[in-house]
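User:
I would dearly like some help making sense of a protein record. Take your time, and here it is.
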Amino acid sequence: MLSIARRFGGPSYGNAILMLGLTTLFWGGNAVAGRLVVGEVSPMVVVFLRWFIVAGIMVPLLWIRIRSEWSVMRPYLLRMVLMAVFGFVGFNSLFYIAATTTTAVNIGIIQGSIPIFVLIGSVIAFGTRVRVLQILGIVLTLVGVTLIASQGKLDTLLALAINPGDGVMLLACVLYSGYTLGLKNRPRVSGLAFFAVLSAISAVTSLPGLAFEMASGTAQWPTVKGWMVVFYIALFPSCLGQIFFMRGVEMIGPARAGVFINLVPIFAAILAVSILGEPFKWHHGLALSLVLGGIWLSERKASGRHDRPNPGGAV
């Protein structure tokens, strides 16, 4: 897969903007994929197949590197299991469950709140100092997410009633933020080897959810259309998206690369409207502006300060 990525565009593999732009396009497309699999394959089957396919590709390709770096990773095994459970299995499970009751536009915009949750978590976990602009950014982002959850209706907000799918997606973002915070103290090994091991752990730890679906009679194995979407999810948002993101970080650094993640909700909204024909209403536009504006404010900091963890990728 790495060789495929390198062959993807030859010199393009050395273009950070292209690599990061494609990454966010793939991740934005994941919101649309989440809607497309509804009725074609059940959520936990998607999660299991996604990580089974990813692990089946990445582990053999990186086996030599994994073996050489395993002694460094082994002391972090419990931490890596928790990161896989929360960031990959937990996030993805809730992501596809949310997709059954909310729109891809909503999913993409709510997903844009992850950097803010990371900032809040870094304050709690690491004592990161927060400036006034960052506090304002947090407030703006949360207002934007609340606007989406209430569907732009004041009476819904006053009644404290939200779309269940939006609430589930918000919880998924909290879980992924926990995974992202864990990246701050991950083992010092190559990113691809680390991701390959996490994907293998995720394939194994997704089995209880799959077993629950099968036992409850709700498991649905993919239709032909379902298989096509599952392979898209595994190959593009997962494998190529991660490889391209790591390449982008390698070329321009995590701080600058992290800003590109702000494009995910934009791509998700564009793809949802163009592919799924979902409506884009006034509250979507206002919420998207608030979320992106809040992230922009929170990212404004003195040059040379890198006190927050790598924002990771919304896989």
Remarks:
- The CA atoms of residues 246 and 262 lie 16 Å apart.
- The mean pLDDT is 83.
- The chain is about 75% helix and 0% strand.
